[in-house]
Design goal:
FAD/NAD(P)-binding domain
Length: about 400
């Protein structure tokens, strides 16, 4: 048997996942469940999840539950009492949907969780799986070689391994996206995210710290919710400004944020001032209409379709991707056909979610009369409007039921 044939035979059920974020770790677990051997290559020497909090709606939660993670997530996540929408300037409550309503409607809890907690439990599940090996400090650049026998990569730690497929889950600034002809490039969204954590004990009566609260204002909005088992409050402020500065978690001066929100509720301003430090990053997006796959390489999550965070579905779409990709690869031996089937199955939904998120962001940032009309509609019929907007998203199941 030739060396090429030997490698091809050894790699027939072996997958390389590039990137150990939420999407990559979930993909590895989903693939291992389907009988694949999985190597995860992560360029970082240590896993350190960017950001602070994440919202897990039912569509994502069901996928994680199918991987046996429901109990572990429930131990560290929080089911908020409600999702509230407030006017950023007056602080007035416009509408709310209770957590119990969400759970009953979608037959699954709505969770909020610290990103580091979710990544930790995903990593623990990966390390407990004999079918998965995690490689830290391994940078898989775009120099990969694919032919009919499989895929080889030019990384020393994996140089003698052939893979049936490579899954690029390496984020919005993916280095492997350039290998896929027709893939969209990342572009600046002209919005900056500001993030901070505040100890719940410091909040006092400024906020009901058991719920998700969205404050809407001119050209900006703020989202606040509990994380870290309720010990901290996660704050995310999204403001419109031109910025494509590279990097994640860059230090931000609160005075700059306060200036942009100077006409907002004094109560909110006081709450934001409690944060000891702020991190900022420029939001980027990737058009989901571009190509996601080529031969034996597939893009997953933000590498394929980074979207604006106005419906809290970025990570959820990556988690959904993982379930469908594993399903399609396990259905047959024709890898390129399986990857194309994955792309076709996912693309229409993700395009629709990304468009809905962009529209939601526009409404959140309305000014003048448009903002007044939005607020009136939310006061009159807010719960129905909110649920109608997310119904088709949250009801999704990997089984298609």
């Amino acid at each position: 048997m030739s060396e090429a044939a030997r490698l091809a035979e050894a790699g027939a059920r072996r997958v390389l996942v590039v990137g150990a974020g939420i999407g990559g770790l979930t993909a590895a677990l989903a693939l291992a469940k389907r009988g694949f051997r999985v190597d995860i290559a992560e360029r970082a020497e240590e896993l350190d999840e960017v950001g602070a909090g994440i919202q897990l709606s039912a569509n994502a939660g069901r996928v994680l539950a199918d991987l046996g993670l429901s109990s572990a997530i429930a131990e560290v996540a929080i089911e908020p009492a409600a999702i509230e929408i407030r006017n950023g300037r007056s602080g007035a409550l416009l509408s709310s949907v209770s957590g119990s309503t969400l759970k009953a409607r979608y037959d699954f809890p709505y969770w909020v969780i610290h990103r580091a907690d979710l990544q930790k439990l995903l990593r623990e599940a990966v390390e407990q799986s004999p079918a998965i090996k995690l490689h830290l400090g391994v940078d898989i650049g775009p120099d990969v070689v694919a032919d009919h026998t499989g895929v080889q990569v030019r990384a020393l730690q994996l140089a003698d391994v052939s893979f049936a497929v490579v899954v690029a889950a390496d984020g919005v600034r993916s280095s492997l996206r350039s290998v896929v002809p027709g893939a969209a490039s990342a572009r600046a969204a002209n919005r900056t995210a500001w993030r901070a954590l505040i100890p719940t004990a410091a909040v006092g009566d400024l906020l009901s710290a058991d719920r998700v609260c969205v404050w809407l204002g001119p050209r900006a909005h703020v989202v606040i919710y509990p994380v870290a088992r309720g010990d901290a409050v996660n704050i995310v402020a999204i403001v419109e400004e031109r910025s494509d500065q590279p990097g994640w978690g860059l230090p931000g001066a609160f005075t700059d944020l306060a200036e942009q929100l100077e006409s907002w509720s004094p109560r909110l301003a006081q709450l934001l001032s409690l944060a000891d430090s702020w991190k900022t990053y420029a939001l980027m997006s990737v058009d989901p209409a571009g190509s996601w796959s080529s031969d034996r390489l597939a893009l997953l999550g933000d590498a394929a379709h980074a979207m604006l965070p106005f419906l809290a579905q970025g990570a959820a779409m990556a988690i959904e991707d993982a379930a469908i990709l594993a399903d399609r690869l396990s259905a047959g031996s024709d890898v390129p056909a399986a990857l194309k089937s994955y792309e076709v199955e996912r693309k229409g939904r993700v395009i629709r979610v990304a468009a809905a998120a962009a529209r939601t962001g526009q409404r959140y940032h309305f000014t003048g009369g448009m903002a007044a009309a939005r607020d009136l509609a939310l006061r009159i019929d807010g719960e129905r409007l909110i649920l109608n907007e997310v119904d088709w998203i949250y009801r999704w199941r990997a089984s298609g039921e």
